[in-house]
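Table 4 source record.
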Amino acid sequence: MVKTATAAIIDAETEASARPKPKAVAKVKTPASEVASSWLATIERLAPHVGIEGVRELMAMRRQEQDRQAEQEFNAAMSTAQAALIPVTRNQKNKQTGSSYADLAAIAEMAMPIIHKHGFGTSASEFRSDKPDHVGVALEVMHRSGHSKRYEFHVPSDGTGLKGNPNKTATHAYASTLNYGERYAKCRVFGIATKDDDGNAASATNEVVTDVQVGQIKSLIVETNSDIAKFCAYFKIEAIVDLPAKRFDEAVGLLDGKRRAQI
């Protein structure tokens, strides 16, 4: 009689429970190679009773268990890595806004060794964004456990100024957008904070304004003929999309006050 894989496992566990219990000893984590060998031995032992479909079911159960364990290791390592990361010094200056930022080189030097130490690797790529005038930047995060996760970000194109006038060559704008997207993605995913040379840190995990709020601010800036560089310098940000959400009302209030004064 051919049994299902689940029934065969239950029978095997019942048989094992009936055997004399060994003397209790301290638990030691079993190496992955030994776990795999144990599973293969179990499948080999049960194969005559479950048939080919049962073997396939057992293999699927094994894969599900491996995936679950790998995801648990990924999440645990992510938590530990984030706790170990220290703020990265902003080593570059945005000439247009007067604000400072940490470039990819600074992140690679200060943050990535810690991220790699905890078993992570990253790979950035581009995808087609469904948002107008945006570039899709994806960050694939792989862990040595075998689990990986893909994070996607829609980054506003950096090819024009506030009023729509080109301010870069097409190649420069494309590279600038991808570069910013990769920096932003790594900081958001791993919670990397940045700091000025004086040690004043700003957490990368702070919530920033939404796309709708960015549109509202841009409209007010155009309506009041304000200087975007001065706006960003005032709020100490590199671009409007970096404005902390908690300062959105303040920004709108300042611009709306200027608009009313012009009426």
